Amino acid sequence: MIRFLLNLLWFVLGGVVMGLGWWIAGLLCAITIVGIPWARACFVIGNFSFWPFGQEAISRRDLTGHADLGTGALGLLGNVIWFVVAGWWLATGHVASALACFLTIVGIPFGIQHLKLALIALAPIGMQVVPIRR
Fold it and tell me: How far is CA 12 from CA 20, 51, 87, in A?
């Protein structure tokens, strides 16, 4: 119930805007055809941005137990290109938002979610968002 309430507050107070922004970025990447791997990553981050509480981003290699195209050498190259073009400034924005959220006690859970989004924004290729297992 707490996760639902936190996700609802997150969604209303900015999560919808963040998620739609990532989806628009994904559409722009997909239009270029060459950007399709980054488009998929943008859609994954967008969905994560809508409802981040109760989810975590992990490597698909850890999830499935074997390497795939996104977790191998091509995925590494894709993440390096992503980091140079977009990842570092997106992560910086999330870290800045997290610091602003940490100024209030009520904002601490939202700041933690911004840090999770900052980590996945640095290198999203080869990552999968899954429910947190307890």
Answer: 13, 11, 25
Alpha carbon distance 16, 26 (integer Å) = 15
The total number of structural domains in the chain stands at 1
- The Cα–Cα gap between 17 and 101 comes to 17
Q: Domain range spanning residue 78?
A: 2-131
Say if pTM beats, i.e. exceeds, 0.70.
Answer: yes
DSSP tag of 83:
I
Task: Provide the residue-wise pLDDT of the chain in tens; the chain has 134 residues.
Answer: 888 998 998 888 777 888 888 898 889 889 998 888 889 888 988 888 888 888 888 888 888 888 787 788 888 898 999 899 888 888 888 888 889 889 989 889 888 988 989 888 898 888 888 888 76
Burial class (CB in 10 A: 0-12, 13-18, 19+), 131: exposed
